[in-house]
């Protein structure tokens, strides 16, 4: 959530203009369970109208998240997508 808040603050982007949030996460268990992309977005206090999805492609999860976001923009179906990744390996 902290990174998303800072991303919006530094970029100056209107958070309501974001059309999707796509995160990669290898192990969606414990604190990363559920849809960590959507949960992080909401925890950052950002608009609940923006959807989010978490991708699990093992070691390539974050790269796949970026690819899905880029495909949306390059195809013209989306204008602004936030993509990223997260992993907690201390479990």
UniProtKB/TrEMBL annotation:
Its EC number is 2.3.1.9. InterPro entries: Thiolase-like (IPR016039), Thiolase_N (IPR020616). Pfam families: Thiolase_N. It comes from Streptomyces sp. SID7499. Residues 1-91 form the Thiolase N-terminal domain. One of its GO terms (molecular function) is acetyl-CoA C-acetyltransferase activity. The keyword Transferase applies. The keyword Iron-sulfur does not apply. It comes from the Bacteria. Keywords: Acyltransferase, Transferase. This is Acetyl-CoA C-acetyltransferase.
């Amino acid at each position: 959530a902290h990174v998303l808040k800072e991303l919006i603050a530094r970029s100056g982007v209107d958070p309501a203009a974001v059309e999707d949030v796509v995160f990669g996460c290898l192990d969606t268990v414990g604190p990363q369970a559920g849809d960590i992309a959507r949960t992080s977005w909401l925890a950052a206090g950002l608009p609940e109208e923006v959807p989010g999805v978490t991708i699990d492609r093992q070691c390539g999860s974050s790269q796949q998240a970026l690819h899905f976001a880029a495909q949306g923009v390059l195809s013209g179906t989306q204008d602004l997508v936030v993509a990223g990744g997260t992993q907690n390996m201390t479990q």
